[in-house]
Amino acid sequence: MTPENRSLLADPRGKRLLLVLCAVAFMDFVDTSITNVALPHIRVALGFSVQTLQWVPSAYLLTYGGLMLLGGRLADLFGRRRMMLVGTVLVAAASLTGGLAGSAGLFVAARLVQGAGAALMLPAALATLTTTFTLASDRARALGIWGAVAGLSSAAGVLAGGLLVQGPGWRWVMFVNPIACALIVPAVLAVVPAQRPSAQRTRFDLAGSTLITSGVLLLVFALVRAPIQGWGATLTWLELAGAAALLVAFVVAERLVHDPILPLGTFRIPGLAAANVTGLVGFAGMLSMFFFLTLYMQTVLGYSPLAAGAAYLPLCFAVGISAGIGAKLLTKVGSRWVICTGALITSGGLLLLASVPVHGSYLANILPGLLVFSAGLGPVFVGVTAAANAGATAERAGLVAAILNAAQQIGGALGLAIFSALATSQTDHLLASGVSTHAAATSGFHRALLAGAIFAAAAALVSLRTVNTRDDAIDAGHTEGADLTTEQPKRSVLVIGRSQLVLDDTVAELDRLGYQAQSTNDFSAVTDRFDPKEIDLVVFGGQVPLDRKAELREEIATINPQVLFVQGLAGIPGLIVNQIQGAFATEHQNPTQPPTYTLEGRTIRLTLAEPHDVNATVWWTTSTVPPDPKSDSLVLLDDRVAPGDHTIPVPDRIPLKRAFATVQIDSTIHAFSIATEP
Length: 678
Known about the structure:
single chain, 678 residues, alpha/beta, Growth Hormone, Chain: A, Rossmann fold, 11% strand
């Protein structure tokens, strides 16, 4: 068995690494819910008001979700192990401070720092997992275990909180973290490899970092505050509008900088957007269940903190089992159907829980819904994680992991904000009508859980647009030792050009095809940023000055004489990718006569000595306005073609100004101009 095909999980080192990464995730996820059952005790001890008490869970969520994108990019830029360690130390220090806090303000500040530390740890851990366990079977198992940990941690947090509050006291919901961190730090140092940063950089994008962090923080803040201020309040809409303005400004700024903190091409990774929307909508409906069901058990049924926590114990086991089943199904039916089926099952569980009566019992009214809910929750976690990371390369793995987790956290905040407003409105209306407190509260919980079921069903619908990963697709983009069932290019490509949009689109498509692609629009320090010894091919855009292009060719070729050079045509990403594929395929040229083009007849002529698969595509620019030229394309032929002479007409509607054609014959690609001017 070759090293690329050897199972890392069969090695004790791989098992230890997965254990440490899941321990990091478990601690971060647990901290979102561990304080829930301790809230009444925290309120009395530190003097919180009813209105300010919600900041105990919300402060953690604010920085956890708001700083997640920044944390993920920092992991790519400065190293994943380093960010895990920095985040762990922050969580330990903040938790110790919170446990010793004597005032409400200090406790909330500690929770804010806790969330910031977790935002550094989690994307680094998930990115390490997705770029290390690249064998299809290993990756499915690793994602299954990660999904099980993510799914059961919310319930485990409530259970752990109940045990600690009933035992040593509420302060131990904070003191338990420094103990866990003291175990995690040496484990990370011993087990997680100290790899160099996966993304190249020249300078830190301070403006982009400030805008994206401020925008997401303000968005989460607005969602957290909305149930208290009211969705119709002017301040709520001003906060949401401010968040939108900051995020729009971020997108504009990222298109203008040489080294963006979040390359916009990342969002063009196939299936990433759909997977994250699925996660956002799904987790909005699913995660709020823990909040409302815990309130129902404690305020209506009179459960103690320990009893409310213990009620989730069956869910912990059931999620672990269902996540394992979901992981196995990934390689059978693909992530799309795992997510869709899981979300529908979860929706059914929420519908059962939405009918709990005022005088309900655990076995008859709560447990059945919890078991159905957990049967779907595990597969959803596993499937969404697999789909979102399917096309992520090592260079952007931390960022992709952060986008996924940020979407889930924002979804959780959004769900809680919307459903709290629905529950409160229903409860207040019934109380005003003379209905008893318990009956009114239960009816409010019914409405919130019903809305959650609708959101979960909507997530199932959105999931149909996600990438359907299988054992041969789950490794897309991860070429470091990946077990690919079909031959994938593993060459390193550097794209040098002026337009950031063209660079992002080109790199995104190369990433999808499995190349190790990087780009820059800073022509002054290319060999300082990138090691020519690690580059197989360099693409020059048309806007690179001729003298600088000649200098770079000489500098790079002196260090690496084997490097290939390609002149990109017309700033058209798809055409450039075709050129790159053609350059790499020259050593496997088919014994066919190259195609020719006649301008008068607007035809491509092709002669084949034997049958071949042929694809003929024309490309043309629709706008050359800097900094981002626009283009279009049309496939003229994509079929198995018999031997003989063939003509492929170019339609009259195709403009011949700055137009090009690519003809792919099996694996060989010919690119040539059909334009009336260069």
